[in-house]
Design goal:
The protein is an alpha/beta fold. Helices cover 45% and strands 12% of the residues. A hairpin with a 5-residue loop joins strand 8 and strand 9. The chain is globular and about 70 Å long. It binds S-adenosylmethionine (SAM).
Length: 355
């Protein structure tokens, strides 16, 4: 962010040539964003999209299928249809749209768990304290719960932890194939995915490169539910090592390539310690690939800037710009050798450990 205008132009909200300004209705809609998010969450929790097939259904049929009160379900669906999530046919039935299909659990590109994760109960306690987070340097989530986000998830909110892991697996699954296609792994025999979630990215890489071996490091409760392909008895188990741990404490893994994808989004001290631990564990010349959605160069600034605030609240973290990531990697002693898009939303920062 380079500059912020402090005095808006006088014409900012004035009607132009008799055309009523859209500013007031737009602002009213904006402050009702919570109603939109809650409506998507309710539809996902009720399983409405899963209950609706390719043939349009009446609200009554859907209400029976999901165990809802028909008149109220109709109100929920009307509100969603206004935004393009479901549509009402001329004879008053409910039909799928491109967006409502994404709420189906069995959709190949399903966003069901991402929608649930972004609207989990704890989010509704943290958003009202955004002004506090902006005013101070405290982490709102830690203040409310007296413990860090991941500790809270695993100690106090196991259902939310499961939603989070499924959401991460969904987004990994969607980017894993692109990452496997993007990555040139010539010369790499050992890869380590740090904070690799349930291991979808690692499994995709091991499947694509039959001689490659790999380690998955994540929190113990996450690694315990790793992708079955990587676990004992799984087809990739003989080439996979599961490493439960805390990457801010230690990274007990030697590899030629370290992948750090969507991890360096927490507080700066955690980022500093994680990168320092990678540098300490890696052999000289090892490759370190940091993969992130950026605040610059993003085709979805509305999503990325919202996620930036979400991270500020729950982990005292942030989304990065190219410059801020390069600065942190360089400060850790890494030589950044290139930045390339993996897909329109993700960028890979390639670097080497000195030596
Ligand atoms: C945003 S997710 C990213 C997961 C995966 N890399 C991906 O891109 O899909 C963050 C991951 O960091 C893990 N994590 C959080 N704190 C950690 C820690 N201290 N040590 C290791 N992993 C951690 C979480 O369990 C989660 O899997």
């Amino acid at each position: 962010m380079t500059s912020i205008r402090t005095t808006p132009p006088k014409t900012a909200t004035a009607p132009a040539d008799g055309v009523p300004s859209k500013a007031a209705p737009q602002l009213r809609e904006l402050v009702f964003g919570a109603a939109r998010a809650a409506a998507v969450r309710a539809a996902a929790s009720l399983g409405v999209a899963d209950a609706l097939g390719e043939r349009p259904a009446t609200v009554a049929e859907l209400a029976t299928a999901v165990g809802a009160e028909p008149e109220r379900l109709g109100r929920l669906l009307r509100s969603l249809a206004c935004c393009g999530v479901f549509a009402e046919t001329e004879d008053g039935r409910i039909a799928h749209t491109e967006m409502s299909r994404l709420l189906r659990e069995d959709a190949p590109d399903s966003l069901k768990y991402i929608c649930l994760w972004c609207t989990e109960p704890w989010t509704w306690h943290t958003w009202p304290r955004l002004d506090e987070a902006v005013r101070s340097d405290t982490c709102v989530f830690d203040e409310i719960h007296g413990k860090g986000f991941f500790t809270y998830l695993h100690e106090d909110a196991p259902d939310s932890a499961r939603v989070f892991d499924k959401a991460m697996t969904t987004s990994s699954r969607q980017s894993a194939a692109e990452l496997a296609a993007f990555l040139d792994l010539r010369g790499a025999a050992e890869v380590a995915d740090i904070g690799g979630g349930q291991g979808h990215v690692l499994a995709s890489l091991l499947e694509k490169h039959p001689a490659l071996r790999g380690s998955l490091l994540d929190l113990p409760q996450v690694v315990a539910n790793a992708d079955p392909r990587l676990r004992d008895g799984g087809p990739l188990a003989s080439r996979a090592r599961l490493v439960p741990g805390d990457c801010r404490q230690e990274i007990p893994v030697r590899a030629d390539l370290y992948i750090i994808k969507n991890i360096l989004e927490w507080d700066d001290e955690s980022t500093r310690r994680t990168l320092a631990n990678v540098v300490a564990a890696a052999p000289p010349g090892a490759r370190v690939l940091v993969i992130e959605n950026l605040l610059d160069n993003s085709p979805s600034m509305r999503f990325t800037t919202a996620m930036d605030l979400f991270l500020l609240l729950n982990v005292g973290g942030r989304k990065h710009s190219s410059d801020s990531l390069v600065t942190r990697m360089t400060e850790a002693g890494l030589s950044v050798t290139g930045i390339a898009p993996v897909n329109p939303y993700l960028h890979a920062f390639d670097s080497r450990v000195p030596g």
